[in-house]
Every structure is written in C-alpha cells, then in structure tokens.
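TOPIC: backbone geometry
CONTENTS: sequence, structure tokens:
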Amino acid sequence: MSRFLESFKCRSAPMCLHKEAFFYLLSETTQQFHPDLELDHDLKDVLRRQNGELFHVSIDNSNHKLRMYGSAEELRENINIYENFPGNHEFFGISGEPYQTNPIIFKSLKNDQKYIAKSDLFVILQNMIVHLPGERLGQIIRRVVMFLKSKQARFKKVTEFVKFDEARFEEMYEKMKEDEPKRKLSPEDTNNLRYILFQHFANVPPGDDYDEEEWATNYRASCILIDILKEIIDENPDLFLPRTEDSGEPITVRVFEDGNQQFLMTSEVSEALKANLTLNKLLETISLEEVFKNFDSKNIEFIRYPILRAKHRATPIPISTQEIPNEFCILAIDTFFEFFKELILGFKYFQKADSNLQEVLTVLKVVFELDCTTPYFLRCDETEKMLDNFMSHLKNVPAKNVRNAKSDGFTVQNLKNELAYLGLTAPFPEIQDYAEVVYAEVEKRKKEEILRSCDLFDAVEHCQLNCILERLPELKTFVHNQKGCHRVYGFKCEECAAENAKNQENQKLSILEKELEELKIAYQKVFEERQQKSLEIQDLHHKIWRLSVKNETNEVKMKQLTEKLTKSELSIDCDIACTSSASQLKIQCLICEKSIESGEVPIIRCPLCKRRFHSKCAINWLKEHKECPACNGDIPKD
C-alpha cells in the first residue's frame, strides 16, 4: 500500500480534533470537551500535545460528563472512525487546516480493482510534501494546503472515483523531490502568490517567536512547491479535474453496503444513466438488483462503499450533484438512533415530567417517511433540527445523571435500581422488565473484563428504546423495515422472528436442495464413469474375440503348414551317419542359437539356403513369420 495514504504528520492538529469531537459528541456534552482550554492551560502547550494526551486532558476536565464514551482511547478510536471520509474538511469547517483524513481505498464490485475518490488525491499531494527531505515542511504545509484546497474547490462533485495507480503517484513524488531544490521563482509568480497568501494570513497575528527572515524563507519554499504542484495538477487532468463527457474512463457510481444490503442513491443512478423516470429524489435508494434488472449498466463501474459507524454516530457520507454540491448525509435509520440517543442520554427527555411520546412521534413524522420499506438517506443536520423543534421548553428542566458503576461492575439488580433512581419507572412502568435481556447484551459487548459506567449508559438507553418501540408500533415497523432491529439490545421483533423462521425453513430447504444437487452430480459422475468402463469392457471383449478368431485361424494354418513341411523338401533328415567331412562340423540353429549336434534328429532344412534348424524351433518360428531366419527368403507354402 502506498506510503502516501497516511497523513500521520499532518493530522490530529488539536484544534481540528476539538472540532471533530464537537460534531461527534452529544449536544449536551460538547461543552465538557476541554471547556476551559484557553483559561486553564497554556494554549501553545496544548497545541504541542499528542492527541492521545489531549483526550485524556479533556475527559479529566469534563466533570464526569464524558463517562458514556468510555476511556480516552475508546473515544479517540471512535472519533477516528467518524471523521475519516472524503471531503471532511468541508463538513467540519476546517478548510484552513491541513487535510485531516487518510485517503480511503475502495474496490470495484466487478473485480475488486482499487479506486480512490478524486477529492482524496489532493490529500495524497499533501502527504507527498510531508515525505520530502527537509525540516521546515511542517511550517509551510498550511500555505501549500490552502492552494490545494483552492484547486479542489473546482469540483462540483466529490463523489467521482479514479483507479488507484500507485506507480503514477510515485512518479509525481519523484518529480516533486527532484524539482524542488532546483526551482527559482520568477518575480511575477512571486508577486501573484504573495498577494494570495497575504490575503489569507492578513488576520493571523504573528506569534511571539515570529522571525521575518524565517517567514520569508518558508514563504518562498511554499511558493516553489505550489508551482510544482500546479504543474502536476495540469499534467494530470484526468485525476484532478471533473470527468468530461468525452472521457474514456467509465462513469463511477457508489454501491452502498450495509450488512447484506447493497443499494445505490437514485440521484447518482439517474445522473450516471441519464434516466429520469422515477429516479429523481436526491436521497432515495434503489437496490443493486433493480439496477441490473432495469438498466444497461455495462459502461458503469460500481464502487463498493461500506456504511461505517462509530459507537455513537455514523460516519457522514458526501453527496453531490450539479445543483447541490458538497453536502453530507447518513442513513435514515442512523438519524433515528442518533436522535433518540440525544433525546435519552443528552437531554434526558423521558426523565422530565412533561415528556410526551406522542409529541416525539409528531416530530419524527415531519422528517421521516415511517412507512418506507427501502433504505434512504437524510442530511446530517436533520437531528439537530428535530431537537430544536420541541426541546426548548424542557432544556432547563433538571434531571438526574446516570451514576458511576461500582469498581467491580454492576448487576441486573443494579441496573433495575438505576432505572428507578433516574425516575424512568414513572413514564415506563414496564422498563425494569427489559433489564435482564438488555444486561445480557451489554455483557456480551463490553470492552473490558468488568462492566463500566459507559456500559451502564448503554443499558439505560436501550431499556428506554425497548419501551418506546413497544409503545409506538409505527416506529417499531420503521426500525424493522430499515433493518435496525438488531441494533436495539434485547429487542424482540415479531416480524424478524417470523422472517427468521421462514429464512430457517428456506435455509433448510436450500441446504436440502444443495445436497440433492450434489447427490445428482455425484450420481451422474458415477454413472458416467460406469458407462465409460462398460464401453472399455465391451471394447476389450471385441479385441479378445478378434484375437481368439485370429489365433484359431493361425493354429489351423500352422497345422496345415507343418503337415506340408513334413511331406515336402523340408523333410526330416533321419540319416544318422554322414560320410562328408562337413557333417562332422557342429552347426548352429539360428533360431535358438544352440548347436545342432551331429546326428541330432529331428531337424528341418530351408529349401533355399539349405540351412538346418531344430524342427521344434522351425515350427514355432513359422507361427509368427513367413521368412527364413537365415536368408529372409519366402518359404514356399507348398
């Protein structure tokens, strides 16, 4: 993986962490996150702190108001999940700071090829600068990033993706590293950039350690880097400019993945496929199956985009069209749970005397389509709008805080006692009935060996959620339709149970069908093997029959031939005495290569070459040959 994907030297500026934490924390707890930063601490000292220490300081000075978030490490981990998404500087309002995100690698649905959001390419350019040799880069990065963000602002869409080409980025870095020491600024470039930068920093007062010469040196260095970056951006328009109509690259569309669900934003499908039809509402979705079924998508590259969630909030998702650039949203079900988390743990709504469930339902109906059966998105500011609508008259009504868990944890009875202590048995007399099932779920999900105060907050929240959903069937149906039932600890959904039973039956049927199919395949394989063997056996039988016939024929011929040989010139020489001198010589049978002893009988003589052979050897030889083994001449049949 590319070394330019981690912004470790530029990220976690304390002020940025504060901004991100303010968005992540519940509204009623944000003021407790370093409330007296400038009063109780030397600001320069705080800015030099590591972000881990910063979280410890924040929690230590929160007057126990941040207990629901667990340890400092847990809070930091959750904020890191929450804040890491393309274009987050727009969402958090930290445009003047270095990019505070790690570029994310996405994969295509088709072949898992790597893609990256175009907006994250500017983060990669920032990270290249950090890797350049030199010690003053940390001081000039802010000026250079201002230029990068001005270039990025040309995007009207933050949802375009390109293939992640690591070698190409390395080439850009090498160009930057080689050119930076050689470059000199022209007077014209210097004047132009000086105007831009001084406009930006006009209202930034210099620190006590301000050094004019050092600042000028850093300024010139930043101008040179900006000049190099401009060249890189201009040389790679396919990466750093919006996609054009005549582009050879495929159109990229996100496929959101949440559990086993895969769906697309209708506005993105409509824009990519030029299909107006019913795909005209910005935040509605369409399933991937429907897209494949109803549209020609062969020129579309579908990018897998997982829905991410920290413990208390979902990670914002950038949305953008030509009409509404650079907005952010989350799924409606995430908005629902964030709203109730604010209501239950933040404002302690149901602990206050005038709380009214029907009033809550009325507010929800304004924002949510409670009868919608498919996933859909809502803008990230909807939760705050809903709370503002009806919380003003209860904001200053006192309510008890959740107490600390004991050092050895808490029990089911402790949870029941806490629910009574908080006054929740008044609006929800049945709430303690949920304590046991909720406690069991909290026990399963705990992060440490013993249950802590943050776990007690979770238990109190989910006991109330169970009561609310059971009392408001419309909300119960909504949560089920939006696939959120499993997110409520101990919640029993009859529809889920029925679906699960049906799914189990379908699963059993599917398993049986699969086993049957496997048996069919196995049987077919055995049948084919046996059929093949049967054919092979038949073939062998035919061969044996042919050989048998041939053998019988050969035996008849051999018998006839032997009879002829005994009557012909190949007569058996039975003479025992031989008067010639040659007869006294030992003669070798060429067939068995053994000597024919003088006077040995019976023997056979070739009529052509007159060579003699053992009679038995000759008969066996003629079974397979027609030629004489000595002269290779044809032996007459007669």
Summary: The first helix runs from residue 14 to 24. DSSP finds 23 helices and 14 strands in the chain. The first strand starts at residue 105 and ends at 108.
